[in-house]
Amino acid sequence: MSRRGPLIAVAIGLGLVVLMVAALILPKASQVRSRQKQVLQAKQDEQTLRVQLQELKADAKQAGAEHKALAKLNREVPPTADLPGIIRLVNMVADQSNVDFMVIAPGQPAAASGSQASVIPTQITLIGHYFAIDQFLFRLEGLARASKVVSLQIGPGPQATTDPGQIQVLLSAQFYTTDMNAGPGSIPGSTQGATGSGSAGATPIPSASPSPTGSNP
């Protein structure tokens, strides 16, 4: 019996240790493992968010570039025909080029075949000297509004007998608008509310705008 006493005490002590481990240490170890998993998941989520943030920054940068490109396109091919605006632009070019005389006659806008745009045929008559005409054509090409020279006829100017350097140019050009409803009596923009030819709110189309700019020095 005397030998069993210490053995029993040792067994009881070991049992208590096991109980302490089970009651205190194991739950803590489980919490630590759970925390480790949470930390690992948080790191993965952080990496995913970083990638998404980079993608959003790239999209924002691309959106800014596309917005600028769209604004440039709207200037080059505006949503309305704005024929008075065309006349002002061409008159400005004539003044800057110092041509002797200029007449512009925008035609009726017409839908372009196979395109989501309307074409505005425009006839331009120029009288001046070679370098002035050359400057006019150069500046016309650089207008904020897109234009295309379709044909060009060159002949002597009305005063060529007294001024041999004077020439006259008959220029056929095209301007553009994204307004597919542009035309005689149409309402620029949406077709909603349009009542046909001669409806209220229709934009009048000027037929010509003479622009004497003075003689070259």
Shape: rod-shaped
Largest sheet: 6 strands, antiparallel
Helix content: 40-55%
Q: How many helix segments?
A: 3
CATH architecture of the largest domain: 2-Layer Sandwich
Order of helices and strands: HHEEEHEEE
Rounded mean pLDDT score = 76
> Which CATH class of the largest domain is shown?
Alpha Beta
Assign the CATH topology of the largest domain: Alpha-Beta Plaits
Low-confidence parts lasting 5 or more residues at pLDDT below 50? Answer: 189-209
Strand content: 15-25%
CATH superfamily of the largest domain: Ribosomal protein S6/Translation elongation factor EF1B
Determine the structural class based on helices, strands and strand pairing: alpha+beta
Description:
The chain folds into two domains: 1-76; 83-210, Ribosomal protein S6/Translation elongation factor EF1B (Alpha-Beta Plaits, 2-Layer Sandwich). The protein has three helices and six strands; from the N terminus they run ααβββαβββ. The protein has helices spanning 4-76, 83-97, 130-141, and strands spanning 101-106, 110-111, 118-129, 147-156, 166-177, 209-210. Strands 1, 2, 3, 4, 5 and 6 form a six-stranded antiparallel beta sheet that branches. A hairpin with a 6-residue loop joins β2 (110-111) and β3. α2 packs across α3. The longest helix has 73 residues, at 4-76. The chain is rod-shaped.
Write the layout of secondary structure elements.
Elements: H1 4-76, H2 83-97, E1 101-106, E2 110-111, E3 118-129, H3 130-141, E4 147-156, E5 166-177, E6 209-210
Antiparallel strand pairs: 1-3, 1-6, 2-3, 3-5, 4-5
Helix pairs in contact: 2-3
